[in-house]
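Friendly challenge for the regulars: who can give me the structure tokens for this chain first? No prize, just bragging rights.
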Amino acid sequence: MLNYYKENRSIKKYIAFLFMVLALSTVLFITYKYHVEGEKNLPFNITKIMIISSAETEELELNDNSYQANIIQKNDVFIAIEKNDNYKKQDAIKKISLSNFNIVTEGKKGTLKIYRPSTEETDFIYKAPHEINNSVEFVGDLNTNLKMEKMTISNQGGLFQFSIVQNDLGKITYGENEDITSDGTLLKRLDLETDDISKEITFDMIIELSSGKTFKTTIALKLPTGDIANLGVCTNDDIDLDKLVFKRM
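First reply, four minutes later:
Bragging rights claimed.
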């Protein structure tokens, strides 16, 4: 009889141990799955990221019947946010933040800077007052307005933009009556190819909601998009969004 009770206790301990192992394995699997896939039913989704890459002249100066101009390479980035129709609860965007801009690889020439949209008629002004140093915010409101000092995005989703620019690539000279070029073929006049100014940057995007929920992802962009040195202007609106992993904060 004593041996029977001992064997019975051993079996119970073994079964309990198996349940503990199974429970731990389940927790580890769920944790790993969340780490890889993140949130699967967000209140708002990124529905498109579009990049338009080109180059242009800046700071034209007249000098002895000719003009000198500084060449910059620009990448205008557009990000669209839309409400998720599969998310049945009511919510609204409180704020979207971009931060932790990091240069993974940098081109052979120039200095990389990031700019917010200008508050004037032109889309961008590549000067210090419009430069993004550490982070930029788009506050949720009834409408999207990127022309205000305090930029807003519709609290039910909208489109916002910023520009990643490679400055100080070099100067070129125009004749007094020569037409001014404003595209990526300007690089050829500096003996540069697209690969010479290729770069990769990453940044964090944080979506804060009125419900108190906050989600974060990291976005990586390889720039410029396309062979602008030969094609002039290149657009990419087919960026793989499935690689973006949003997690709760």
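The longest helix spans residues 2-37. The first strand starts at residue 44 and ends at 62. Your move, everyone else.
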